[in-house]
């Protein structure tokens, strides 16, 4: 926060501004909004731009390289399944990264929770809801433990979660047993990845989503305009609605095409993983953007001392983001187990965490805290999943896979660091 | 203190300290401090580095508990044992290292920790309106938008937001810790105007500064600390600049200040 104390020049202060707040009233023109956006980008606030560019460029690249397989409905459904666990894990990491903390154990925590669920299903014969609940409770408890070590005792999160990264792997190994795997064959849990929303219901949900989104956006615009508050121009609101509608319709259309490999069988509809991700996205976005808890998370990430002086219980916020992170890790572990049909001692290890951190950072969440949104996890998760999926289709060797994914994460972190420097230099 | 220190028209002080002592371990930082802060007046708190200004305002803010002495707020004796209690009384402190979060906008910062809610939803509309109202009342005209991120504001604008944040809460006493340090000429001007308006809108203001020009420009009273003792707490009309500097550096000036014997004892 050192940059905040230096007094910038008075250049930004408009000399002859008579009444103040002129930007709040004159924000009605589309041109002004576009200019303001370009200013922000130049100032280092790239927002979702890198992730969207990444999705488009990588999509075109893999389409050019594998035109017959990459953009097919079947691969798109596969991509969604592949992206879901990464996205959900990354959503939890967004909360932790917002405080400028890190959870290196998030991946293996997803493994522990999945192992708990699988053992209950396979050995104890527990019904799916008991097993899922147990996995989620495990996540909550682990999060409380990690959060207490970081928030109450004050050990740097890097060290705590590095230790837990090792520790929890041992735990999973003990649960599953050396060299073994526990199958996950419960039909409800498997449905997350291998069943689809019926096509008609899919369309109904899609149109409902668009209608609700449009209604909320337009209503907010109406209220803000009526009460003379700062607001985006109507054109921008309409463009926003249009983009969301187009994406939802396109995804639904592609996934409603029959993608069965054999003739005579019908395989169509949105995989259940997608509505799950969308629900989490809506709920967590609401928590971060519309509740005082979310506001306090941003405040602690931006300036913990200011938050403390404002009467915010900083320790409580610290502990709760780790609880949220581990809970989402548990859900991610369940989704991953559903996809693979089993849990192994290595579940959640390897590059799971790297992918999720990469997803959050590529999506625009800062590693330095204070900046990030839940949607970053979705956009960044798609980029990461497209890379993994595309490289799989190309049949690249494992070593290249590691190098390329590591390189992309490094690139995203560099963009983040440069954006931050640029922001400090331009006073944004 | 032999000179008359009160004017009859001043009324009840918003804050009165009587014989306040504060020690940290073996080191006594505040010795028998008396101080009066009146509504509608700016009281400058001056003193050299280490004179105890920070300790004094932290005691007022409830961050440090005083060891002994009386703390009167609007004439009633109170004990302030935490920042929340101080805030509940109507005491707001604007710290030197502005307690603002860079990544939040002006409205979000002004309501930080005390957000208005509709059920569990944040009531953004009402917060934005109230923030704008407060800024307008203080005649703040330099902000382009109340939805601007604080990171994009200049030093003077940040100071303005920090002060407006303090005023938003029906505060009665606003303590400003060196609000003009590190500001340019034009920005210092804006902040001093704002300090004056705070007093003119009925607030009791404590203004800490090392700059005598600023002090004499906006203050009604001056309180000079010298090595933890209150050397003088008088209307500004009773002192001139060389006297204040003497009070700050030597603890006494003419018939003002701590007694010579006491001053000598402090020197040793």
TrEMBL record, chain A:
Recorded superkingdom: Bacteria
InterPro entries (UniProt xref): ABC_transp_permease
GO molecular function, one term: transmembrane transporter activity
Annotated compartments: Cell membrane
UniProt KW keywords: Cell inner membrane, Cell membrane, Membrane, Sugar transport, Transmembrane, Transmembrane helix, Transport
TM annotation in the entry: 46-65, 86-108, 128-151, 158-177, 197-216, 237-257, 263-288, 319-340, 352-370, 377-394, 400-419
GO CC annotations on file: plasma membrane
Family matches, as PANTHER family: ABC TRANSPORTER PERMEASE PROTEIN YPHD-RELATED-RELATED (PTHR32196), XYLOSE TRANSPORT SYSTEM PERMEASE PROTEIN XYLH (PTHR32196:SF32)
Function, in words: Part of the binding-protein-dependent transport system for D-xylose. Probably responsible for the translocation of the substrate across the membrane.
Protein name (Swiss-Prot/TrEMBL): Xylose transport system permease protein XylH
Species name: Geodermatophilus dictyosporus
UniProtKB/TrEMBL annotation, chain B:
Keyword Nucleotide-binding attached: yes
GO molecular function: ATP binding; ATP hydrolysis activity
Keywords: ATP-binding, Nucleotide-binding
A Pfam match: ABC_tran
Ranges for domain ABC transporter: 15-252
InterPro entries, per database record: AAA+_ATPase, ABC_carbohydrate_import_ATPase, ABC_transporter-like_ATP-bd, P-loop_NTPase
Protein name: D-xylose transport system ATP-binding protein
Organism per entry: Geodermatophilus dictyosporus
């Amino acid at each position: 926060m050192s940059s905040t104390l230096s007094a910038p020049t008075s250049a930004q202060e408009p000399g002859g501004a008579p009444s103040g707040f002129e930007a709040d009233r004159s924000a009605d023109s589309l041109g002004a909004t576009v200019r303001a956006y370009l200013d922000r980008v130049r100032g280092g606030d790239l927002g979702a731009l890198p992730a969207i560019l990444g999705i488009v460029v990588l999509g075109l690249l893999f389409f050019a390289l594998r035109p017959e397989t990459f953009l097919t409905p079947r691969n798109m459904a596969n991509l969604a399944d592949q992206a879901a666990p990464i996205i959900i894990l990354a959503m939890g990491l967004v909360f932790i990264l917002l405080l400028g903390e890190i959870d290196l154990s998030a991946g293996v925590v997803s493994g522990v929770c999945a192992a708990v669920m699988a053992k209950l299903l396979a050995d104890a014969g527990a019904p799916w809801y008991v097993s899922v609940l147990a996995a989620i409770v495990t996540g909550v408890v682990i999060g409380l433990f990690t959060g207490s070590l970081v928030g109450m005792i004050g050990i740097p999160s890097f060290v705590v979660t590095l230790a837990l990264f090792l520790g929890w792997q041992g735990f999973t190994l003990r649960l599953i047993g050396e060299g073994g795997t526990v199958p996950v064959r419960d039909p409800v849990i498997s449905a997350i990845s291998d069943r689809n929303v019926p096509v008609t219901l899919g369309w109904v949900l899609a149109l409902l989503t668009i209608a609700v989104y449009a209604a909320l956006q337009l209503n907010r615009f109406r209220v803000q305009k009526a009460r003379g508050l700062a607001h985006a121009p109507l054109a921008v609101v309409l463009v926003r609605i249009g983009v969301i509608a187009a994406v939802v319709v396109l995804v639904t259309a592609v996934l409603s095409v029959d993608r069965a490999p054999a003739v005579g069988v019908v395989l169509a509809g949105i995989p259940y993983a997608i509505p799950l991700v969308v629900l989490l996205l809506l709920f967590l976005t609401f928590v971060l953007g519309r509740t005082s808890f979310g506001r306090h998370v941003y405040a602690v990430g931006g300036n913990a001392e200011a938050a403390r002086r404002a009467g915010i219980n900083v320790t409580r916020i610290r502990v709760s983001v780790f609880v949220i992170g581990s809970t989402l890790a548990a859900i991610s572990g369940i989704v991953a187990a559903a996809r693979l049909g089993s849990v192994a001692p290595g579940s959640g290890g390897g590059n799971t965490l790297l992918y999720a951190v990469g997803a959050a950072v590529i999506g625009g969440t800062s590693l330095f805290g204070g900046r990030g949104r839940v949607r970053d996890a979705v956009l960044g998760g798609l980029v990461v999943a497209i890379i993994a999926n595309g490289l799989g289709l190309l049949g690249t060797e494992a070593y290249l896979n590691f190098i390329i994914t590591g390189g992309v994460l490094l690139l995203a972190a560099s963009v983040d660091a440069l954006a931050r420097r640029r922001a400090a230099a331009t006073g944004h | 203190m032999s000179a008359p220190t009160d004017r009859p028209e001043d009324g009840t002080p918003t804050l009165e300290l009587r014989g306040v002592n504060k020690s940290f371990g073996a080191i006594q930082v505040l010795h028998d401090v008396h101080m009066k802060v009146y509504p509608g007046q700016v009281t400058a708190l001056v003193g050299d580095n280490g004179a105890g200004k920070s300790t004094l305002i932290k005691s007022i803010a409830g961050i440090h508990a005083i060891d002994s002495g009386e703390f009167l707020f609007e004439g009633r004796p109170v004990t302030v044992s935490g920042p929340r209690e101080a805030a509940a009384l109507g005491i707001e402190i604007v710290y030197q290292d502005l307690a603002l979060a860079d990544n939040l906008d002006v409205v979000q910062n002004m309501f930080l920790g005390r957000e208005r809610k509709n059920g569990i939803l944040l009531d953004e509309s009402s917060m934005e309106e109230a923030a704008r109202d407060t800024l307008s009342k203080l005649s703040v005209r330099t902000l382009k938008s109340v939805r601007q991120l604080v990171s994009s504001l200049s030093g003077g604008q940040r100071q303005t937001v920090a002060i407006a944040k303090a005023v938003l809460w029906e505060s009665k006493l606003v303590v400003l810790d060196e609000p003009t340090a590190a500001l340019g000429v034009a920005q210092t001007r804006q902040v001093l105007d704002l300090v004056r308006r705070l007093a003119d809108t009925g607030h009791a203001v404590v203004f800490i500064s090392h700059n005598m020009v600023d002090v004499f420009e906006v203050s009604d009273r001056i309180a000079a600390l010298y090595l933890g003792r209150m050397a003088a707490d008088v209307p500004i009309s009773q002192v001139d600049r060389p006297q204040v500097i003497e009070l700050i550096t030597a603890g006494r000036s003419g018939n003002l200040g701590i007694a010579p014997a006491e001053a000598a004892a402090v020197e040793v």
